[in-house]
UniProtKB/TrEMBL annotation:
Residues 12-192 form the Metallo-beta-lactamase domain. CDD domains: metallo-hydrolase-like_MBL-fold. InterPro entries: MBL_Glyoxalase_II (IPR051453), Metallo-B-lactamas (IPR001279), RibonucZ/Hydroxyglut_hydro (IPR036866). It comes from Alteribacter lacisalsi. This is Metallo-beta-lactamase domain-containing protein. It holds the Pfam family Lactamase_B. SUPFAM superfamilies: Metallo-hydrolase/oxidoreductase. Keywords: Hydrolase, Metal-binding, Zinc. GO terms for molecular function: hydrolase activity; metal ion binding.
Length: 211
């Protein structure tokens, strides 16, 4: 399994393309520039099997419509945020001047709970990690030592909690009870900025002091 980070949109949200030797692929968080994602897939002869959303804020879902207009693939999101894809007030796109309203009216597949999830030939361990948003999800690939965590945990920081449904105490509990239990060498493929590791954040993240 190979992972390619593709920053997308005005906020440079990290989208992650995961693909294997069969040329199958899944894409985490196409935040914008869906046409760019489709072009990359075609140029590299990759077969997209699923779009997976760690959460449904506008800067993580803005490219879904453009991808789905070209490729008939399922879109997965936590059931608590299904309506967020259709509602700019919930996904936040109506809150920021200059940001186009983001709405996706297509059919989506909903996720809930924890445990093994399969998308085509890809298998992940799914964790519910709310706090940044009520339906935030993290997806762990043990063999590759990587967790796709959205906006839960950053290098030296944590996700913001001032948007609808955010709660810092809940977020810190999610990080402590779910992510920090992963092996220290686990790469945190997060939504913005550079990747980090679980071990590095245990040692130096100021928001996690006392946990």
């Amino acid at each position: 399994m190979q992972v390619t980070r593709i920053p997308l949109g005005p906020l440079q949200t990290n989208g992650f393309l995961v693909h294997n030797e069969k040329n199958d692929a899944v894409f985490f968080d196409p935040g914008s520039d869906g046409e760019k994602v489709v072009s990359f897939l075609k140029e590299n002869d990759l077969n997209l099997k699923a779009i997976i959303l760690t959460h449904a804020h506008f800067d993580h879902i803005g490219g879904v419509e453009a991808i789905r207009s070209e490729l008939d693939v399922p879109v997965y999101v936590h059931e608590k945020e299904e309506e967020w894809l259709r509602d700019p007030a919930l996904n936040g796109s109506s809150r920021f001047p200059g940001i186009p309203l983001v709405q996706f009216a297509g059919v989506v597949e909903t996720l809930r709970g924890e445990g093994k999830v399969t998308f085509g030939s890809f298998v992940f361990q799914m964790f519910e990690t709310p706090g940044h948003s009520p339906g935030s999800l993290s997806f762990y690939a043990a063999e590759q030592n990587v967790v796709f965590s959205g906006d839960v945990l950053f290098q030296g920081g944590i996700g913001r909690t001032d948007l609808p449904g955010g709660d810092q105490e809940t977020l810190l509990a999610s990080i402590h009870n779910k992510l920090l239990d992963l092996p220290d060498e686990t790469v945190v493929a997060n939504g913005h900025g550079p990747e980090t590791t679980i071990g590095a954040e245990k040692e130096s993240n100021p928001f996690l002091n006392g946990f």
